Design the sequence.
């Protein structure tokens, strides 16, 4: 049994700092690095790529909407082709820093509002899939587990990593419970650890209304932008390893199984 | 005898249009495509890369300062490493669109204030050289003919294209006459044509004060951002071909000779 | 009988030019000047404000979404209070250039996607109304004629100018025909002239499906961003004046009647 | 005897936080609020203006270069008139938030690289002076004590506040010791307190090389962007008040004396 742990990184910008990248990097296996659209800048990208390389962590592009002011969390209407081109631009830029760090890009994970939109909007999903295929069809695409986006990417022949959120509650139909629903975010560390181990060992989660549901999880998202988030990463990783589960980068996992 | 003709392209942005790319593309052999920092946007980059591919024109990244408001024409202080990272970012982004157009990046030519600064500032030149080497040491770097930048890039082992400006007057020492000097820009088409042919056939130019000077020219810069610029491109190309000179992309020329 | 003619102006940005402001300014009476968010920059704002002052044209702020890449034409999700603050910011900035041109701000007209959104979304409308009241309750607010926004602004005690679009077709219920409906944009100059005169003299328009409808119009929007748009402005103004209708800035019209 | 204490505030941007504004606000009397060019955004400006109003702190515009990526700390070449227009734009925007907070703008203090450049460059100084005069000749302009900028602004008839830096060492000629000179920044709190009291009571400072120098100080700059900076503000204010010195906003001080 094995799983990848991913976290958003490289979200600082100029004089502005977000996240404790040098701490959380020790516990994760894949880094989603912001590409200068919703966060990050070229110097932060260079530094973060080097940090990931040094720790043996897989480097991913984390493209978002061009909305630094909203941190990529606001929906933005786009005209046909724009999402494809936004993704190509950011993947290309990130790949240059992976190269300059002596390695290459492992994966692509859309960020924030774009991630959520693509999970359910077929046109957006299609544009992202086209961008990844055009740039490098060997790249791994990280998608919300069970989403239409995951299905479309799989059918398109891409390597797809299905992602689960250990500290988020799920509805009985496998969708994430909306953030404004009571209990949507699980703050209790013990509960998170137990969910993670159960999910990886059995493929099962208990939904917010007590139903058992199956969820494919190739990678678990560890939030990194709150102070002390690295401690949760540490405890999740230790719990997994204590159970004999291998924590490893996406590139070494069997995907599309 | 052969020479490359290059022009800046892809400088439109959103609803804003600059240049007549679809006209000038027919007469040039290498396109310097803006990368979204001083001009251009992802959709313009995609369209321009496809246009260049369709016409057999070599695709180049045209990275500039992050200064859309100043079109990359204003000097910007940078902290150590920033130029390197700005270049890596933009080369990477442009390479994604070359790939999606079914080809690959041919060259890199810094834009505007950054081009002029790197021509004479060794630290800036060094950062650009490092970026190109880190991304792809086979890329051709276009530099001001005879500049310290050209020398440094050659010594660093890069493929270097020395660039001359047919419609600009030169000082006796081989430097470009400053734009505010009378006669610095040559508007007479016949004179430009004659200079071009003489330069390519003999390697010589007459300086603004009447001295003969030798200038290595692998590529000639054809300005494209003024209405009707394509006509000058057309007349230059025809004059060259009438003299039996081959006009061809940088990638097919012998460089560093 | 009197009416105001308004046009969007100051949409150039740095090296990028849109519109023929110095031509259209001669035929309009109120200028909606872009404020640097969706178009325009400080130097363009200064120049455009001076141009308007010189021609006796009322100066208006034309605030939009912070989306230069999309020219303010794309919907952007905003969090509560953001629209209010975006409007305050842009009105304030524009008012500084009105002052430096020796006059003061006459009106505010939201731009593009924000204009359309506020016309029907009460929360957005409310935030804009609050911003105008907080900055200067004497400012005139230009709104889509007959919209909920117009009603809310009137009830809030603002001076409200109801706006009609001479070259746009209307549905029988008084709403603008969607742009993708055949006939939605009226290209025939004679038809536009006749509609304008009829509307100002009788308050009536014929809808796209042949019904007669009443439309309050304090100001008519003359599009300025297509080449030659000033000719339509000229012909509309001449047609109105030939009928004895006074064309005058919003500040000199009786509003809220 | 009286003095103003000013601090840079409102430097957060979207999801990015800099400074502990709600702490430092209790100890200062004038706030320099970032205007969205080098830092700050409309919602941060609104919030910060309200915070200052609530604490009886004078509201100032803190305009900088349009360089969020460099936090306004990098020199940027500008074309004639651009600085004037950048200042007008930002003053105008800030004044809107002062109004919406129920008060009005007290002062203008250029930020970072622009502050330093204007202190010694007459053209930049002149453009800033013109902007302030055009917007509101009653505004107070904060300048480096003893600078050519301070002289020019005084001669132009503006209300000028001369600023000193308690935690920065000075050269014998009254200029700030460059940051890379050992001892340029004074970290010892006791030393800072003693310098402040001596300066306010006697108008004298001891330069870095031991000479006594006179320095006009209407306001002292308290740095706010390092964690815990509010403690230094607190201790400075308490030391001053213990000596019977009144700490009060610029608007209540006699200037140009």
Sequence:
């Amino acid at each position: 049994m094995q799983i990848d742990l991913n976290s958003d990184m490289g979200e600082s910008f100029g004089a502005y700092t977000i996240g404790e990248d040098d701490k959380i990097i020790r516990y994760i296996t894949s880094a989603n690095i912001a590409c200068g659209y919703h966060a990050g800048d070229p110097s932060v990208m260079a530094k973060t790529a080097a940090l990931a390389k040094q720790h043996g962590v897989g480097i991913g592009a984390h493209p978002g909407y061009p909305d630094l002011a909203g941190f990529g969390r606001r929906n933005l209407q786009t005209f046909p082709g724009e999402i494809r081109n936004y993704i190509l631009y950011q993947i290309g830029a990130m790949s240059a820093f992976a190269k300059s760090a002596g390695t290459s890009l492992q994966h692509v994970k859309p960020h924030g509002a774009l991630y959520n939109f693509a999970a359910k909007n077929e046109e957006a999903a299609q544009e992202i899939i086209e961008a990844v295929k055009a740039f490098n069809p060997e790249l791994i695409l990280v998608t919300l587990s069970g989403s239409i986006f995951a299905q479309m990417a799989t059918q398109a022949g891409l390597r797809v990593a299905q992602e689960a959120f250990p500290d988020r509650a799920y509805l009985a139909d496998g969708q994430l419970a909306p953030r404004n629903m009571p209990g949507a975010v699980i703050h209790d560390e013990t509960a998170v650890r137990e969910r993670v181990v159960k999910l990886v060992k059995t493929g099962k989660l208990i939904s917010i209304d007590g139903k058992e549901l199956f969820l494919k999880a190739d990678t678990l998202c560890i939030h990194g932008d709150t102070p002390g988030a690295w401690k949760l990463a540490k405890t999740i990783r230790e719990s997994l390893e204590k159970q004999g589960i291998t924590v490893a980068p996406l590139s070494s996992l069997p995907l599309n199984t």
Chain D has one domain: 2-252. Residues 9 and 33 of chain D are 5 Å apart (CA to CA).
